Amino acid sequence: MADEADMANDLIASEVSSALNRLRLTTSGKMGPKNCALCEEAIPLVRRQLGFKFCIECAVETERRKLLFVD
């Protein structure tokens, strides 16, 4: 029988998998901009190839703010 920790780990794995699938579906396949849309810092090539428009630091901060203001 699975304990609470096992169930929590399964839930986390499922949520991560769902989030990655949503990201894959929404990625346009187009090259992202050379500079971050928020701070104008250069975005690494691999990140640009995935279509991201924010540098890592701005993306982390944006996600953190979203989590703080969830209804």
Characterise the protein shown here.
It is a single chain. With 71 residues, this protein is mainly α. It has one domain. Helix content is 58%, strand content 0%. It has 3 helices and no strands. The longest helix has 23 residues, at 4-26. The chain is elongated and about 50 Å long. The mean pLDDT is 89.
Largest sheet data: none
Fraction of residues in H or I helices: 55-70%
How many strand units? Answer: 0
Q: How many domains, in number, for the residues?
A: 1
Distance between the termini: 34 Å
**Shape field:** elongated
> What is the gyration radius calculated from CA atoms?
16 Å
Count every helix, treating DSSP H or I runs of 4 or more residues as helices.
3
List low-pLDDT spans.
none
Query: Roughly what fraction of the amino acids lie in strands?
Result: under 5%
- Give the overall pLDDT as a whole number: 89
What descriptors fit this protein?
single chain, mainly alpha, 71 residues
